[in-house]
Amino acid sequence: MILSRQETTRPPEDRLARSVFGPLGGVVEIGAVNATGTWRLTDVSLGAFVAVRQHDVDRMLDGIRSVCRFSDAAMTIVGELGYLRDHEVSAAALVLWSDGIAGVPESLTQLEEPSLVRRMCRIGTDLQLTRLLQALVTAALAAGTEAGEGVAGIAEILRVVGGLADPDEGARTTPADIHRMWRVAHLPGVLRPASDAPEWGKAGYRAYDAELERLVQRE
Question: Do the Cβ atoms of 136 and 68 come closer than 8 Å?
Fold first, then answer.
């Protein structure tokens, strides 16, 4: 999601919130799978995964509310989507989060093979963390949160979600990693001359890119 010239006012808040909480749900589901260390879906307990990380989850949600200036009604959407509640994580969900890049075998039972599950988790982590950053910056700009004000909060959100996506610190995606992936995956579409983004929006994305580079690339 990007800001378009047709949107002269703030886009509907529920749409902005869903654009943030969607990829966040992918991060949580993938993190619960990675936390097993076996990549066997029968070993996944999403409820237990969230419970032991509740402090980080709450801190992350507080950061999202602050940076995006979401109302109480918008914040309830994360509960409505159900990603933070205990539920089964299916192979089909991992195909969705990884955009099917790893492929779908002829026998669907092979989707649950740990080697393929692990590959989908790696791909899905990169995709969803990058989309989450795009959604956060878009929502922040729509709310009038300028880069100098919002970048510290976004960087902290990225630190938390990187830890949620992969509990293995050695394999964790850092805020610097997420920033670089976001810059090459999303900014060309926003900033190219034919982009539908308004000039103030383009300036805002550029400012967030510069501030994120200043803050997270030196960590």
Answer: yes
Comparing C-alpha atoms, which of 166, 139, 147 is closest to residue 32?
166
CB < 8 Å & 24+ apart, contacts of 181-188: 181/126, 181/129, 181/130, 182/130, 182/133, 182/134, 182/137, 183/209, 185/130, 185/134, 186/2, 186/130, 186/133, 186/134
Residue the block writes with tokens 């890049």: 101
Q: What is the pTM of this model?
A: 0.93
Percent of all residues in the chain with a pLDDT value above 90, rounded to a whole number? 86
Q: Which of 63, 37, 74, 87 is nearest to 161 (CA)?
A: 63
Q: What is the pLDDT of residues 78-116, one digit of tens each?
A: 999 999 999 999 999 999 999 999 999 888 889 999 999
- pLDDT value of position 200: 92
- For 13, 183, 194, 214, the CA distances from 98, given in Å and listed in that order, are 26, 19, 28, 30
